[in-house]
Write a structure and sequence with these properties.
By secondary structure, this protein is of the alpha+beta class. Among the domains are: 67 residues, no CATH class; 79 residues, no CATH class. Helices cover 52% and strands 16% of the residues. The protein contains 9 helices and 6 strands; from the N terminus they run αααββααβαβββααα. The strands form 2 sheets. It has a 3-stranded antiparallel β-sheet, covered by helices on one side. Helix 2 crosses helix 3 and helix 8 packs across helix 9. The longest helix has 20 residues.
Length: 226
């Protein structure tokens, strides 16, 4: 009874000319009018859904540790969640687990999963992707946290096994001179140092830094120049 009521509501909202065309198309596909319209609506929902980009927090367990996938709308939300997930693990669990953020677009979804979603509905299959990771700056626990050592005039970074030494004597001289002149802007100075060092590190390692690696470098530089 409920199904008939729903069909009647759909029919009532269709203009006569559109309804006639829909009836003809439904007949060609050997479908009822209501089923044909429901398919059109689902196609539209599917099209809008797959135009989005989602950020997934993947926790991949090894040796019996459970795996999980969480879906977020923005990179910031996903990175923040990934940091919490990774931080909640013990040292022993971290050795058996990979936590990372990856972004997924419409072209990444497995066609079979899309077809199943179209037929059965339910939760959109964001986790059933065939490829992913088009955006820099995602969290990845495989990016070993950088180590940072400082001396009076240098900062030494060790990132992914590569040592990068940055001479900061000119920076410190500039900072002191601007302080004397009363024109020193601490925020602007620190941001410039962060950008320069990250660019230097990425050039040296030949790759983009992961979110968690960037956070460690932000903290180290901020602490050094305080």
């Amino acid at each position: 009874m409920m199904k008939e009521k729903k069909t009647e509501t759909i029919n009532m909202k269709i203009a006569p000319s559109v309804k006639k065309l829909a009836q003809e198309m439904a007949a060609k596909k050997k479908m009822t009018l209501s089923s044909y319209i429901a398919d059109l609506i689902l196609d539209d929902v599917l099209r809008k859904e797959t135009m989005m980009t989602k950020f997934l927090v993947e926790k991949v367990g090894i040796g019996g540790l459970p795996s999980s996938t969480e879906v977020f709308d923005t990179q910031d939300e996903a990175n923040e969640r990934a940091v919490k997930v990774w931080g909640s693990l013990t040292d022993a669990e971290k050795k058996k687990c990979h936590v990372y953020v990856t972004d997924v677009t419409e072209d990444d979804i497995n066609p079979d999963a899309l077809l199943r979603y179209k037929k059965e509905g339910g939760v959109f299959p964001w986790a059933e992707y065939m490829q992913s990771g088009h955006t820099d700056g995602n969290f990845d626990s495989y990016g070993t946290d950088p180590t940072v050592k400082t001396t009076k005039n240098s900062i030494e970074y060790t990132v992914r096994g590569k040592k990068i030494i940055v001479d900061v004597s000119d920076r410190l001289a500039q900072r002191d001179a601007e302080k004397e002149q009363g024109v020193f802007d601490e925020v602007k100075f620190t941001v410039k140092c962060i950008e320069e060092d990250i660019q230097r590190i990425e050039s040296e390692i030949g790759d983009s830094l992961f979110f968690n690696e960037r956070m460690e470098i932000y903290k180290a530089i901020t602490d050094f120049y305080e």
